[in-house]
Here is the input.
Amino acid sequence: MTNTRCTLIGVRVQEGAGRLGCDMGPSAYRAAGLAETLSGLGLDIVDAGDLAPGPASPRAHPNGVLRHLGAVAAWTAVIADAAYAASAEGLPIFLGGDHSLSAGTLSGLGRRAAEEGRPLFVLWLDAHADFHTLDTTTSGNLHGVPLAYATGRAGFAGYLPAPPAPIDARHVCLMGTRSLDPAERVAVRESGMLIHDMRTLDEAGVVAPLRTFLERVAAAGGRLHVSLDVDFLDPGIAPGVGTTVPGGATFREAHLIMEMLHDSRLVGSLDLVELNPFLDERGRTAHLMVDLAASLMGRRVLDRPTQSY
Here is the structure.
């Protein structure tokens, strides 16, 4: 970690998802004891409350299936400003909210990294690549576009705020990917992004692929952002998400990744996204995500408390 101060920032965006409920995510993380858990690790925790976007302006687009484009644009602007400000000191943790919030976090963090003269690297832990553009999405749900937007793919100008420092796609590592549309598959391959799908993780495990990526970040003196989507996890252990895809990461795989990230001392910011408490089972997924955040921030497997549900 770059600092022992953590700033919790709630982002109640749900307009990018295909169903309602992600706006309750920040409250669920707080109810599951995120601040108290991290404080128990000796960290200085500041809860900055929840962001509120400016008014959404209607935005027409030739792709008629797009949903809530104006609202997502308004959220992107306010999240980018918050990410830029919070990353000046300490480690911001963004409590989502659907994955469209990462359009804002990556924009603001890219600006911060550029001002520091450092490359921004991104570890994208997600069943999906979220690499659609406004033109290629067929669902119209804008939680499927943030990585395309942040890496400077064409088609966003005039619709979403221009990212001040687009991220080099070659600095992005996708892990746990297992659901790509045909158009996305081609775009990801051509972008130069590093992709470790679930077959790769099944065959090689998580250690070698992640270690290689972290070595690249360290060698470049980079700033590392981790974006953790609930659907990275297998739905058998994390049911509280609206985009379940079978065959996700196991409990131990996910914790091992978090523990390796902590050991690297490279992580500068974190997204926790796509938690939908309406679909959860007695807070099961919220508690697991808090547990994973704790592992990333330094809790070891031997320190994990027994839980009952």
